Amino acid sequence: MTFSKISIAAVLMGSMALTACTQPGQLGGNPNDPNRNTKSGALAGAAAGALLGAAVSDDGDRGDGALIGAVLGAGVGAGVGYSLDKQEAELRQSLDSNVQITNTGDRLIVTMPQDILFATDSFAVRQTLRSDLASVAASLQRYPGSTVQVIGHTDSDGDAAYNQQLSERRANAVSEVLLQNGVPYSRIQAFGRGESQPVATNLNATGKAQNRRVDIVILPNA
């Protein structure tokens, strides 16, 4: 085995071994680690960087390319993870307890139940939730290096075509509040998914309530 192959194998095996112990959004089984996504981002970035560095290098330099790629990738991945961890912590402090925040390590998903956002069959954002959306908008402006997807969802009650239209209108309504609070139009994409992407059963009231939601997905540009 040549030095190049040993270098590539060492980098990849080290990253894969550490990543294998990591669940999405946590490291070493500790979901309370405030730096969990900084660490997992560094690991994922190192593995990806090693592969890319080896791929773009000449045969004789693949070992060095893998090592350089791993270092650069780890830095980028750690930076993304750190930013998401910090933004998540700030949002948790500023948002209503009914708002759910999910940090997957490569994005933040802010889930707002539609029952607190809108009246039944309405797409007018409740006044009481506008302050939470203003807080999200302020966070987005403090962390400008991301794009934002606003995605509306419904339960399966009623006509599917109507649900699709309602989910689109609600996504647009939330997007409009973000725009009014200073988030640039170029960063926001609005989608309606109707009843097509449930997260729970539609066979009972509890599940239906979970499916009626608007997700604000924050995607780092790095």
Helix/strand layout:
Elements: H1 3-20, H2 36-56, H3 62-94, E1 100-103, E2 108-113, H4 114-117, H5 127-142, E3 146-153, H6 160-180, E4 188-192, H7 205-211, E5 213-220
Parallel strand pairs: 3-4
Antiparallel strand pairs: 1-2, 2-5, 3-5
Helix pairs in contact: 1-2, 1-3, 2-3, 3-5, 5-6
Radius of gyration: 21 Å
In the predicted model, the low-confidence regions spanning at least 5 consecutive residues are 16-29, 69-77
Instruction: Please tally the helical runs, counting DSSP H or I stretches of 4 or more residues.
Output: 7
Given this structure, which CATH class of the largest domain is correct?
Alpha Beta
Q: CATH topology of the largest domain, what is it called? A: 60s Ribosomal Protein L30, Chain: A
Quaternary class: single chain
Q: Could you estimate the helical fraction of the residues in percent?
A: 40-55%
Organism: Pseudosulfitobacter pseudonitzschiae
Signal peptide: 1-20
GO cellular component, one term: cell outer membrane
Domain OmpA-like: 105-222
